[in-house]
Amino acid sequence: MKNSKKFIDRDFILVKSSPIHGKGVFAKKAIPKGTRIIEYMGKRILKEDLPSDREKGLTSLVYVMRLDDLTAIDGEREGNDARFFNHSCMPNCEVYFFDQIPYIYAMEDIIEGAELFFDYQLGSSSEQILSLAEKIKLHPCHCGAANCRKTLIQ
Ligand SMILES: [Zn+2]
User: Fold this and answer.
1) What is the DSSP letter of 53?
2) Would you kindly state where each structural domain of the chain is located, as residue ranges?
3) What SS3 state is found at 102?
4) CA of 8 to the centre of ligand 1 (A)
5) 43-85 pLDDT, tens per residue?
6) Structure pTM?
7) Helix (H/G/I), strand (E/B), else coil: 119
8) Cα–ligand 1 centroid distance for 128 (angstroms)
9) Which of 4, 8, 63, 151 has its CA 20 to 30 A from that of 50?
C-alpha cells in the first residue's frame, strides 16, 4: 500500500527530561509545519467523575485534556507519549480534533532537538470567573515565553 511508509515516517518524537518541567517531548528530526505528530490518547471519562477518580487514586489529573463540556480525556490511563508535551504560552504545536479524537500538529517548522509544546488552554466555565491572581495560584506557568500569561488557564 502506498501510504504505509508514511506512517513509519511519522515517528518524529522522543521523551526526555525537560528544562521547563519534568519530562518533555522533543523533535527527533526536523518536523515540517502542518505535520500531524501524534494522537493524544487516553481514557474517555465524564468530567463529573474526575474528583472521585482522584480520591480513589485512579488518576492524578495531571494529564487531563478537555474534550467537550461533559467529557475529558485522561492521558494517564490508556495514554501515549503525547501526555508528556509541556505547555507553552508561545507554542510550536496545536491540537485539532477530528471525530472527537485530538491530534497534535506542528504549527511551524520545528528543528531537530527542539522541545515541542502546545497551549493547554485550561479553564472550565467555573474557572473563568477567577481573578488573574487566583488563576496563577491554581495553575502557574513557568514556560519562559516573552508573552507568558503566568497561568495555564486561558
Ligand atoms: Zn507561560
Assistant:
1) H
2) 42-74
3) strand
4) 33
5) 999 999 998 999 999 998 888 898 888 999 999 999 999 999 9
6) 0.85
7) coil
8) 17
9) 151
